[in-house]
Amino acid sequence: MTGDHYFTAEPTTPARPREVEFTVAGRDYTLTSAGGVFSADRLDPGTAVLLRKADLPAAAVTGALLDIGCGFGPITCVLATVAPATTVWAVDVNERARALTTANAERVGAAERVRAVAPDEVPADVTFTQIWSNPPIHIGKADLHALLLRWLPRLTQDGVAWLVVARHLGGDSLHRWLVEQGWQAHRHASQKGYRVLRVTR
Questions:
Q1: Rounded to whole angstroms, how far apart are CA atoms 136 and 174?
Q2: DSSP 167
Q3: Left if phi > 0, otherwise alpha if psi is -120 to 50, otherwise beta: which for 135?
Q4: DSSP of 80-97, one letter per residue?
Q5: pTM of the prediction?
Q6: Pair type for strands 128-133 and 155-166
Q7: Where are the alpha helices (DSSP H) in the chain?
Q8: pLDDT digits 0-9 by tens, 82-130
Q9: Is 93 exposed, middle or buried (0-12, 13-18, 19+ CB in 10 A)?
Q10: What span, in angstroms and rounded, lies between the C-alpha atoms of 148 and 131?
Q11: What is the rounded distance in angstroms from the CA atom of residue 164 to the CA atom of residue 179?
């Protein structure tokens, strides 16, 4: 693959900021996106299915939440909004994505509870009540598996992870792989060709 892609650490694509509008759980969001990040021009359809079909955290949920591959921050901003007693760690290798997520967290009034960082900047002792991800399938199966093996073990004992994967991009095979790794993985929902997986210990 040549040129920038959404998992380029330092994209050189012109930013050309633009606004992305969407609604989740009755609340309207307007976030800033830019070139060189994942789904720069709209809320990704998989992310939309995840936020519509997975069980959003209740307002009473506490602890730390994790958004793997945060992009410009739509999942992070929704989590921080609906679960105001949590801290949301938003990880992405793309520095522009992290900067956008930080700015968008401020835009929704959650700047003090969002940590948009590179993966290696998450302290080793932080565990997560919930993990959310529209994972970067296009990094390849081996790297995707390594990514999940890095973060899923940091779920708290009674924690839950929510993943969305397109069926034609291996959603069902990823489901099987998770089970083979010893996780309790269930297909929570299917919509528009996407699988929403609920993963627990």
A1: 13
A2: G
A3: beta
A4: HHH-TTEEEEEE-S-HHH
A5: 0.94
A6: parallel
A7: 45-53, 74-82, 95-107, 141-151, 171-180
A8: 999 999 999 999 999 999 999 999 999 999 999 999 999 999 999 999 9
A9: middle
A10: 10
A11: 16
- What is the phi/psi pair of residue 88, to 5°? -110, 120
Tokens of 200: 């627990």
Tokens of 159: 């924690």
Query: 């302290």: which residue's tokens?
Result: 123
Which one-letter DSSP state was computed for residue 56? Answer: P
What values do phi and psi take at 108, rounded to 5?
-95, 10
What is the separation of C-alpha 12 from the centre of its chain, rounded to a whole number of angstroms? 23
CB contact set of 189 (below 8 Å; sequence gap of 6+): 49, 53, 54, 195, 196
Pairing of the two strands 86-91 and 63-68: parallel
pLDDT at 4: 47
Check: CB of residue 108 under 8 Å from CB of residue 136: no
